[in-house]
Automatic annotation (TrEMBL), chains A, B, C:
<feature type="transmembrane region" description="Helical">
    <location>
        <begin position="21"/>
        <end position="46"/>
    </location>
</feature>
<feature type="transmembrane region" description="Helical">
    <location>
        <begin position="407"/>
        <end position="428"/>
    </location>
</feature>
<feature type="transmembrane region" description="Helical">
    <location>
        <begin position="99"/>
        <end position="120"/>
    </location>
</feature>
<dbReference type="InterPro" id="IPR024041">
    <property type="entry name" value="NH4_transpt_AmtB-like_dom"/>
</dbReference>
<feature type="transmembrane region" description="Helical">
    <location>
        <begin position="263"/>
        <end position="283"/>
    </location>
</feature>
<feature type="transmembrane region" description="Helical">
    <location>
        <begin position="194"/>
        <end position="212"/>
    </location>
</feature>
<dbReference type="Pfam" id="PF00909">
    <property type="entry name" value="Ammonium_transp"/>
</dbReference>
<feature type="transmembrane region" description="Helical">
    <location>
        <begin position="232"/>
        <end position="251"/>
    </location>
</feature>
<dbReference type="InterPro" id="IPR002229">
    <property type="entry name" value="RhesusRHD"/>
</dbReference>
<dbReference type="GO" id="GO:0008519">
    <property type="term" value="F:ammonium channel activity"/>
</dbReference>
<feature type="transmembrane region" description="Helical">
    <location>
        <begin position="357"/>
        <end position="375"/>
    </location>
</feature>
<dbReference type="GO" id="GO:0097272">
    <property type="term" value="P:ammonium homeostasis"/>
</dbReference>
<keyword id="KW-0325">Glycoprotein</keyword>
<feature type="transmembrane region" description="Helical">
    <location>
        <begin position="161"/>
        <end position="182"/>
    </location>
</feature>
<keyword id="KW-0472">Membrane</keyword>
<feature type="domain" description="Ammonium transporter AmtB-like">
    <location>
        <begin position="56"/>
        <end position="447"/>
    </location>
</feature>
<protein>
    <submittedName>
        <fullName>Rh family C glycoprotein</fullName>
    </submittedName>
</protein>
């Protein structure tokens, strides 16, 4: 800890938020790198290549994977850009940064994710090319989601250059972690409770711990919402909530797999809403509801049902998961977030520990239990093979062993999240990234041309009044 | 009327909006009840069960009902949560309540609707279980829409506990009414003009009549919009308007049925926009447009074409329906809503009488006429059987008789709406639900932690100015 | 130029924005005309007619074109109404006009487009009827997009009656232009770089040139954004950005065509975001980002990849197009828009020259080059025939010649845009349309009942302070 502390001090120099050279340089150089790497590696797969007309044989055009997955892809896309983006507009003077930087890092991350995930998963060894179709693009959105979750912990305290670095490393770590979990350990994780949420949550929390700002209360006047910024954030909340069933079913198996993943997620989310409202009212003076809980905790059910979404979790099982998650997540906002800030030096702006990290971990556990309890009777033999992919080298796998693999996968996600976050956090402490000083945090003025509002007139009026009083 | 009056007075005690015990208790207890009932009754249907892999035989995965209906389901879902939710953010200080309570009651309602509608419609008598798939979830959203419409009349005047009670009874009434109309009377109502809008509209108006507040003008300073709350409401309007074709086609027949329902709704809505703008300008001083009309009346065409959407209404028929509805609905806002409030003791915050009740009734009439006019020539024999479901016990039905059944169904919707609303309104007058006093109506402060805005500084400034004047 | 100038002066009389007669008259009369024309001409096509049940033979219901295109249609629909609508809410006091008039003219335009495009493209010569299905409705939305682009240049400076006239002529011109480009010249333009964006962009710019207001700086205090109006505009930006892949793939060929068009558009847009952020930061003092660039230039990549979207552009080719477009469009906002206003008398409120006109032209060029470079090796023979529709009278066409045709089509789009805009602009200068005076521009007060906000209190406070100072 002492070493970390001295490293921290070494990095704390005078802050300069001018990113006129660094941001353009990083954006342009990295985009040129993307073009070169795409030129060398990325090609259309057989379902998006013009040869499809000849190679589809007796398939109908409607059986192109595009028609199975494109509606879900678009829903996921809305979650990434509008859902995450608007959820982060809740601060009174950081709406531009919330939705704008979310846009920037997601647009970069999906390109890098296509490459990283492609090298691990879609490489055609016959010609050394990555062949991409709609499923790769869904996976790229998933990968970026991990980095956007991490952004939630750091909202208002970092520069866009730092966010691009966070995304570069985050996507890389994600692709390795995903490969280990899905391909090597052979765990199933259709909705990414472990791969996306546990990893992304702890990745962000570890970075936030490394970037701890002891005097952040200097900008606390901006660390709250205002009436309309809370309404904007509800746009994010609702699009996340409505489309989460598409998120968890987007890459599930054709037919019953997607159908069931949607049902489980829908029900879990519905139950979460009720317990979130209940707990929010219970822990406030006069029973008033807190928008922070409604905006965030209502979504925890979707996270926690991610791994088990395509399993035969049963409808009431989904409700139980959602019920518990609403309670857990709201309690997290009331008790755990202040504790983490005070005693653990983890400042978590959006409360991702309550919305992603904890529910993701819970989702991994639920997935392991549900997998271990699977049986031929419940799934049918063919259903079991389809759902858990008991094929090829894993054709002798049994559900109980699968449950153990799921638990192992959860540990891998945790290790990558915390370990990766500490390493990347160390890099982000270097005093070259243009991050804001404590009293510039949560303020769009640092990185944006902000229009003069009527609201800005008010301090002048107060000033005038003050002057008048003096004059009188 | 005297009895009703004295009952009203009995119920009017001092108001206390503290719901710290009642809201959590209702949410938690009801959600536990849902879990138990789902455990006993709800199971996956054959298209969402893992046995699908074995039982689908020579069907392609793409012929799973999921792929026919999921895109429409998601559109409907957006209408319920973002459409209805944001349409109700138009009040200057009730945006949290508009979008937040909409969220709460919809999330509860869809669970209860799955049970209620399941008992009537999807019960598998071989094992006593309700088997659910994507169509059940669309129907659950439809059912909840009825209750959300009713909320529109009561917006700003009731507590969340009252809304949950309204939803519990509303869903129950809806399920019975729907069963009578669809199964017993064998009426067709793909877009729910009768089942959803007529029922929901009169249900809400009857409750509002029972909860009449003679001194509501005490809070009238809050009973208007502000610039940005009107823009937020346009988000709701547009998502409702754009996705209404999905609403009316979501449970229509596969193939031409869904295709035609979308076309009819789209055209009706387009025509409504033009007559709404025309009438809005005509009835304002200086020809200025009124946002209330644009936000609401533009949607009436979608309501009125609901029943006939899957019939061969013809494209120009749809335009005519939309044309009339824009006129009717805008005139409703100009003349009928003030009349209802002044002379009928019905206070209708969102004007649901003009957007849902009247157009829904009109839609039922249009449906009856269109059904009665159907013929083999226009539909083809197989088309007629498919569209009107002239099968099994109804295989000898003829279009003219079907028209009569449609008219009968409309009466059932009316009776359930008005009768149910009076009964539920009586329950909601009991002085135990934490509803706000007249001068707390339309104010989020009653149930929400509201952030201090710069705007709240303004009254202080005025106060200071006042003080200064005195001092001077 | 002298003639144009004197015509301009002739038309500049005292302005009266009272549209209480003209707007209702135009809306009602035109809607009645629509009903009559629809009654005479428009019928369901075979996939939306009840005869489908008999005529589909051994097609599965899922092979109805509805299921290929409806999800894309809905995405396009969202772009037209929410995307374009909210993108135009960025002005501080013109959000009602931005989203409201967009709604009005789109709702009228789609009806007129169904007729105009139907007469040219879907007329069944056996019975003289236009047979419509989902593809016609996508094309109607496309057609309207051209007029909404033109509205972007005129935002805040015209009356709704002028906008309806602009739409009437715009749709007519579009339908003729599209027929020449697609049917006669046999160019391909799936995403409409030429047909929609080049035409719409120059159409709007030419009208704006005709309606030049030399003293517009009188209303310049309103010609900017405020904090929350910029956040509202981001809703428009993001829905356009996310759904642009659906826009460009909506009417592409079934199977690989739609799949590939989505991939190319997605990648181009992702690259554009990075170069837009880079250039925006580079050209501002202190490297601060400008919301105008983020809201608009990030979308240029989708425009420029429109024509070539369904070709084998390759993934890295798409990135290169997007990269260049982000640079070009942002430079346009920094240098070209002020130049056009100062030296060319073109006032372009939303900067459509940078977002639509230039990128659309570039897209036409990219399309011509990509088409000319096509080969059997890359596409397969059947793929080439499918992609470029080398059938019937064009069965002997070769890619190099097709490239020439594409270039010719681009010229047609330019000529129709500029020529049509000058003609329509002359009509719109007539002093009968109720357009606002210079100092009423960019102000919703001219055409809308605007609620009294707390914000409106501020000037009064200032006024009071002023009074007090005098008193003292």
């Amino acid at each position: 800890m002492g070493g970390v502390q001295s490293f921290r001090e070494m990095c704390d120099r005078t802050k300069n938020t001018n990113i006129r050279l660094s941001l353009p340089a990083v954006c342009v150089v990295w985009e040129i790198a993307m073009i070169i790497l795409f030129g060398v590696f990325i090609r259309y797969n057989w379902e998006s290549d013009a040869h499809w007309a000849e190679s589809k044989h007796n398939l109908s055009d409607i059986e192109n994977d595009f028609y199975y997955r494109y509606p879900s892809f678009q829903d996921v896309h809305v979650m990434i850009f509008v859902g995450f983006g608007f959820l982060m507009t809740f601060l009174k003077r950081y709406s531009f940064g919330g939705v704008g930087f979310n846009f920037l890092i997601a647009a970069f991350g999906i390109q890098w994710a296509l490459l990283m995930q492609g090298w691990f998963g879609s490489l055609d060894y016959s010609d050394g090319k990555i062949k991409v179709g709609v499923e790769n693009f869904i996976n790229a959105d998933f990968c970026v989601a991990g980095c956007l979750i991490a952004y939630g912990a750091l909202l208002g305290k970092v520069s866009p250059v730092q966010l691009l670095v966070l995304t570069l490393f985050g996507v890389t770590l994600y692709a390795v972690e995903e490969h280990i979990i899905i391909k090597i350990i052979h765990a199933r994780d259709a909705g990414g409770s472990m791969v996306i949420h546990t990893f992304g949550g702890y990745y962000g929390l570890a970075i936030s711990w490394m970037l701890y700002r002891p005097n952040l209360d200097q900008s606390s006047r901006l660390q709250g919402s205002k009436y309309h910024s809370d309404v904007f954030a509800m746009i994010g909340t609702l699009f996340l909530w409505m489309f989460w069933p598409s998120f968890n079913s987007a890459i599930a198996g054709h037919g019953d797999g997607q159908h069931r993943a949607f049902i489980n997620t829908y029900l879990s989310l519905a139950a979460t809403v009720l317990t979130t409202f209940a707990l929010s009212s219970l822990f406030q003076k006069h029973g008033k509801l807190d928008m922070v809980h409604i905006q965030n905790s209502t979504l925890a059910g979707g996270v926690a049902v991610g791994t088990a979404a395509e399993f035969m979790l049963t409808p009431y099982g989904s409700l139980i998961v959602g019920f518990c998650c609403g309670v857990l997540s709201t309690l997290g906002y009331v008790f755990i977030t202040p504790f983490l800030e005070k005693h653990m030096k983890i400042q978590d702006t959006c409360g991702i520990h309550n919305l992603h990290a904890m529910p993701g971990f819970l989702g991994g556990v639920v997935g392991a239990i549900t997998a271990a309890a699977a049986s031929d009777t419940v799934y049918s033999h063919e259903g079991l093979v389809n759902t858990f992919d008991f094929k090829d080298e894993f054709k002798d796998m049994v559900p109980t062993v699968q449950g153990g693999h799921q638990a192992g996968a959860l540990c891998v996600a945790l290790i990558f999240g915390i370990g990766g976050g500490i390493l990347v956090g160390a890099v982000l402490r270097l005093p070259i990234w243009g991050d804001p000083a404590d009293d510039n945090c949560f303020d769009d003025e640092a990185y944006w041309e902000v229009p003069d509002d009527e609201e800005n007139i008010i301090p002048n009026i107060q000033y005038n009044n003050h002057m008048q009083n003096k004059d009188v």
